[in-house]
Amino acid sequence: MERRDFIKAGALAVAAGSLLGKAKGANDRIRVGQIGLGGRGKYEFEVCMQNDGCQIAAVADVYKPFVDLAVRRLDGKAEGYTDFRRILDRKDIDAVFVSTPDHWHAITSILACQAGKHVYCEKPLSHTIEEGRRMVDAARRYNRVFQTGSQQRSAPHYAKIVDLIRNGYIGSVAMVECWNMMNEFPEGQGNPPDSDPPPGLDWDMFLGPAPKRPYNRNRYLYTFRQFWDYAGSMMTDWGAHHIDIIHWAMGVDAPLSATAVGGKFVMKDDRETPDTFMGDFEYPGFTARYTYRYTNAQPLFERPYGIAFYGTLGTLVVDRSSYAIYPEMRPETYHTSQDFIGNYITSWEEALPHPNAKPRTPPLRQVAGPSRPLCERMEETGISIDPSSQIAHVQNFFDCIRSGKHPAADVEIGYKTITACHLAVIAYKTQRTIHWDAQKERIIGDDAAQKLTCKQYRSPWLLPTV
Q: What are the residues whose beta carbons fall under 8 Å from the beta carbon of 289, sequence distance 6 or more?
């Protein structure tokens, strides 16, 4: 989800001091191009500003005032462009941050790989499944380090819960649930009229490969993900963060099937995507569910967003601030040790009338003994995802450029995560269960659904071949 409030440089400097270590020499610095200067782009711009191991050499955005402000922020020591391809043409740029709306991620990232740039691309990785596969292929063919912006992968307390789950601390997990709850009823994002774009905004370039539409404030910046032309709803936004952690903790990379229900039931705004949504996933050995709603903010486990792993020994709940474990209670005596026939015969016999006995109510018999907790209750505060884990995630990207290793959220990880999310969106749009062949990377037995794994591009834009 995009941030409304941009991070303050002072907070970043404090966190960066403990994570980035000694400054690099000027000749060792990675020269960076920042593509996209909206919510996440501004955020990553500030992270890089505090990193002595890199230098922002160029910025690009379709809105010229953002470009001018970024260049001023850099004291004029960077070039600014309204066409990102100008950055890719420069031989002195080592890496780019792709912080555009989702429908631009694939084209920009693939062209960057072809131009010899390492890529940090914001999540969700792609707008379609086909795009994601093409992005992986580009990173591999051109031998580029490619980090997906799933920064929870660099948060220590998420790594901790993954270790606990994989080592059986909460037992066997048969179900995982994740959610986002908020209440924007009834006006939501409102219904602003179409209008001329603000001065300095190249609206045609913003649309790029998406269908031609008149400018509307809600289709630009923060609320663009409520329109199918540019994104896949909250399922591919926050859902991508949650599904990524589920895949990591459970040691899986693809669902067997996905189904989804929901709709725009009560919101009175101009969004196209559901205000209420529930996606169910079948994985080998467990099920997962993602729920979001814009109409009621009552949280689960007192958290407006999070993931709950339901284990046989306990339930582990995690969000970006902390995790907690709630022990499972189980009776000391099991059904297998009970003589149910004998118990019922005895209860009937005790209820039979006896001579000179006063009528009485037979006592209820305890079938099971007292319950006991199966694991220790544990609650810990993690390192906040913002700003420190974002800094660590960017630093991991730079470290891997220097070492040649795959980063924490390598493009292949991002692709497999977003594929699961796209399958749920396809299930919602087709109103049927989608079965996925992970080896062939195809939807099974549903040609109409398979067509939704790719999209048409508005001329002259095309998905680059690899």
A: 175, 176, 177, 178, 278, 279, 280, 281
Partnered with residue 246 across adjacent β-strands are: none
Q: pLDDT per position in the chain (466 positions), as tens?
A: 333 333 333 444 334 444 443 334 456 899 999 999 999 999 999 999 999 999 999 999 999 999 999 999 999 999 999 999 999 999 999 999 999 999 999 999 999 999 999 999 999 999 999 999 999 999 999 999 999 999 999 999 999 999 999 999 999 999 999 999 999 999 999 999 999 999 999 999 999 999 999 999 999 999 999 999 999 999 999 999 999 999 999 999 999 999 999 999 999 999 999 999 999 999 999 999 999 999 999 999 999 999 999 999 999 999 999 999 999 887 666 667 778 888 888 888 888 877 766 655 544 444 444 566 777 767 766 555 556 788 999 999 999 999 999 999 999 999 999 999 999 999 999 999 999 999 999 999 999 999 999 999 999 999 999 9
Query: Can you read off the two tokens belonging to residue 20?
Result: 């980035």
Place of tokens 């630009």: 220
Q: pTM to 2 decimals?
A: 0.89
Class of the CATH domain delimited by 9-153+390-403: alpha beta
Asked if 199 and 450 count as a contact pair (C-beta separation under 8 A), the reply is: no
DSSP line for 48-63: HHT-TTEEEEEEE-SB
Q: For the chain, report the end-to-end CA distance as a whole number of angstroms.
A: 30
DSSP state of 199: T
Taking the C-alpha atoms of residue 203 and residue 196, their distance in angstroms, rounded to an integer, is 9
The DSSP result for 53-113, as a single string, is TEEEEEEE-SBHHHHHHHHHHTTT-SEEESSTHHHHT-TT--EEEE-S-GGGHHHHHHHHH
DSSP states of 217-262: GGGSGGGGGGSTTT--HHHHTHHHHHHHHHHHHHT----SEEEEEE
Q: How far is CA 450 from CA 107, 173, 422, in A?
A: 21, 31, 11
The token pair at 46 is: 């500030």
Q: What span, in angstroms and rounded, lies between the C-alpha atoms of 5 and 11?
A: 13
